């Protein structure tokens, strides 16, 4: 059965040396979700692009997100109940902490939102799903990721019902921390696909979101 793998980069995109670009070149049917403006991480705009890509994909869909791209992916997935029928699974690598972003982008960025990090009214934290995603998923985290503390990544993984994998002190799991070609990451995706195949789980009964607790970056 033909499937589509959607590569979903984070803020500023993933350049040619990034593991997402490397992975994209090695997966048949891989497509990159291209944002209108890579420098402004708008959760609404980005999740809409991901949602359109899921809706227009051929066959079962696999999501491979990095950083803010993970947040856009999980929001897109839960905005439309029918997407659970399209998405077979997700590999979510080094998700960024939503408390560092406002509705129009990175908090503290001169060109976007300005606010006091950690105040829920200033962040997109409430917009990000706080319940199980309804698909097989793996969250890959680093012990020294500057964009998300390991404990916070573990909490988000648990909320999403994902398998949690810590790969040690790996920074933000990007080019700067040595992740160009990443065979181990591709193997994680392939194991996920082998375990669950290309058959999505289908519709699940709606799960009421539980009140969330604030987590420091």
Describe the structure.
- The protein is α/β, with parallel strands linked by helices and 217 residues long.
- The chain is built from five helices and eight strands.
- It has helices at residues 19-24, 43-56, 68-79, 150-160, 183-196, and strands spanning 3-8, 30-32, 60-66, 87-93, 101-102, 105-106, 137-141, 163-166.
- The chain has a six-stranded parallel β-sheet, with helices on both faces. It has a two-stranded antiparallel sheet with strand order 5-6.
- The radius of gyration is 16 Å and the shape is globular.
- The termini are far apart.
- 40% of the residues are buried.
- Mean pLDDT is 88; it is low at 110-120 and 202-217.
Write the layout of secondary structure elements.
Blueprint: E1 3-8, H1 19-24, E2 30-32, H2 43-56, E3 60-66, H3 68-79, E4 87-93, E5 101-102, E6 105-106, E7 137-141, H4 150-160, E8 163-166, H5 183-196
Parallel strand pairs: 1-2, 1-3, 3-4, 4-7, 7-8
Antiparallel strand pairs: 5-6
